[in-house]
Amino acid sequence: MGVTIAQQTWQFFSALLFGAALGVYYDLFRILRVAFPPGRVVAFVEDLFWWGSAGVLTVLFGIAGLGGQLRLFALLGEGIGFLLYHLTIGAAVMRLARWLIGLIYALLRLLFRLTLAPVFRLIGRLWRFVGSCLRKMGILAKKSLRKRKFRLKRDRVLLYNLLIGSGQGKNGKGVGPHS
Question: How far apart are CA 50 and CA 48, in angstroms?
């Protein structure tokens, strides 16, 4: 039981469609890269994942759609379908995706400017105000401590000089253990 030309033609066209589907799958990764630019390592891992999953999907397509026979014309059809999608619809999809992502970013920036930016500015001003108040309080506390220490020493010297020098307290009575 052989494979007819009509079946091979059908398999080729289904391989073209499968290649275009792989192009859509790859565009999902490309759109994610536009929306969230990855580093080199992450992009490499994403590419490895895409190639591995595309290989597994190609084998599954060969089993399900081609009756388990992976033929060269099917692989060529898959590649041609991918390229046709990528150069035509895929290019338009990516332009649209970049435009939409740019629009979404612009809306998010506007939303941030209208809602969160004033809150952050207010918090910054409050932080500076509290910081300046704390600095002023620290300066006043240092001055107060310096004055207080000086006063206590001076007052103590004066108080004891008066008491010891006169030998009397405030009420005229003597000061000390024998008074």
Answer: 5
Rounded to the nearest angstrom, the gap between the alpha carbon of residue 93 and the centroid of all alpha carbons in its chain is 26
Return the amino acid letter for 151: R
Rounded to whole angstroms, the Cα distance separating 150 from 146 reads 6
pLDDT band at 139 (very low <50, low <70, confident <90, very high): confident
User: Helix (H, G, I), strand (E, B), or coil: what is residue 115?
Assistant: helix
The stretches of the chain forming alpha helices (DSSP H) are 5-35, 40-65, 72-87, 89-111, 117-166
pLDDT tens by residue, 91-125: 999 999 999 999 999 999 999 888 888 888 999 99
Q: Report the SS3 class of residue 16.
A: helix
Report the half-sphere exposure of 40 (CA within 13 A, side-chain side).
0
Contact (CB, 8 A) for 88 and 27: no
Largest Cα span, the chain: 137
Flag whether the pTM goes above 0.90. no
How many alpha carbons lie under 13 Å from residue 30 in its C-beta half-sphere? 16
